[in-house]
Amino acid sequence: MRFTLRQLEVFAAVARLESVTRAAESLALSQSAASTSLTELERQSDCQLFDRVGKRLKLNALGRQLLPQAMALLNQAREIEDLLDGKEGFGSLAVGATLTVGNYLATLLIGTFMQRHPESRVRLHVQNTAHIVQQVANHELDLGLIEGSCQHPDVELQPWVEDELVVFCAPQHPLAQRGRASLGELAGEAWILREQGSGTRLTFDQAMRHHCPALNIRLELEHTEAIKRAVESSLGIGCISRLALRDAFRRGSLVPVETPELDLRRQFCFLWHKQKLHTAAMREFLEQCRALTAGVRRSDEIVLPPIA
After folding, report:
1. What is the CB neighbour count within 10 angstroms for residue 190?
2. Neighbour-count burial for 87-96, b at 16+ CB within 10 Å, e otherwise
3. Vertex 90, ends 88 and 95: CA angle to 5°?
4. Orientation angle between helical segments 5-17 and 61-84, nearest 10 degrees
5. Alpha carbon of 201 to those of 220, 252, 274: distances in Å?
6. 284, exposed or middle or buried, with CB in 10 Å at 0-12, 13-18, 19+?
7. Average pLDDT over residues 155-159
């Protein structure tokens, strides 16, 4: 065999970080050792895997073809290493989750997973949908848990459980007394919404695009809790997942506003790279996710500890 696992590890790190220096740091190698490893891989194979763009190294067509296969082989090697170390194949797991899933489901799931498999090393990245999709496509994450859909050609998407957004307001807002609103009334309100690139914002925009194309968007915030606090302070009305609001609705600190004319349904989904090897840890975590939502019609019906 003309290559080593170390060479593939350096190649994958350079592909992810687009820099030999940063790749060497991430692998605890000297820059010269990482550079030599990459040079030897290309020399022994008589091929070039990167194009230099300024100070960055960008994968060329051959490099992009090699990366998923190299990642699969490295994942298999880590599983073998963990098995030989007595870890029963449950090694590292990198999960990405969008904000709603991350805050209300993923942390609970990962906590349970780590209790069952204390030898595992689990990382959770919470970002908006666009970031999670890109990280999965770049092999930076093993698995993503997102809200809505994605169209990336390298990513496979699998439905998990249905979710629904809901319009909401403060208890003292005029809409709170009626508990419902027409499209005309919604068009006249000030809105506090998630940022562009989030799955929540995409679902909201798709639902409203044919009805109220010119809304008064007062604030765009990256965190659902910040949106809830702003709406509680009567700065406007909002629209986020029922899952994120159910405890606030129980307490009465926020009030749902039903909108029969709008379709605010969406799916929580799993996603992974199409060429990703499903490790034992991935399979176990996915099984745990499905068990949590077994028999559940919608995400806000999932039995969870109370959310403050």
Report:
1. 13
2. beebbebbbb
3. 175
4. 120
5. 10, 25, 26
6. middle
7. 94
pLDDT per position as a tens digit, 105-154: 999 999 999 998 887 889 999 998 989 999 999 888 999 999 877 889 99
Q: Phi and psi of 210, rounded to 5°?
A: -95, -5
Q: CA 154, CA 290: separation in Å to the nearest integer? A: 23
| Separation CA 294–CA 95 (nearest Å) | 21
pLDDT band at 307 (very low <50, low <70, confident <90, very high): very low
Amino acid at 152: H
Closest CA to 187 of 237, 254, 230: 237
Cα(130)–Cα(127) distance, integer angstroms: 8
306 pLDDT above the threshold of 80: no
Contact 160, 167 (CB under 8 A): no
End-to-end CA distance of the chain: 56
Q: Is the model's pLDDT at 308 over the cut of 50?
A: no
**Is the four-CA dihedral 297, 207, 233, 180 of positive or negative sign?**
negative
Q: Which two tokens stand for residue 98?
A: 């969008």
Q: How far apart are CA 115 and CA 80, in angstroms?
A: 22
> How confident is the model over 210-235, as a mean pLDDT?
91
Contacts of 81 by beta carbon, 8 Å cutoff, 6+ apart? 91
With contact defined as beta carbons under 8 Å apart, do 157 and 271 qualify? Answer: yes
Only one residue has tokens 């949590």, namely 292
Residue with tokens 């970002």: 127
Please state whether 89 falls in left (phi above 0), alpha (psi between -120 and 50) or beta.
Answer: left
pTM score > 0.90 for this model?
no
Query: What mean pLDDT is predicted for residues 275-288?
Result: 89
What mean pLDDT do residues 279-291 have? 92
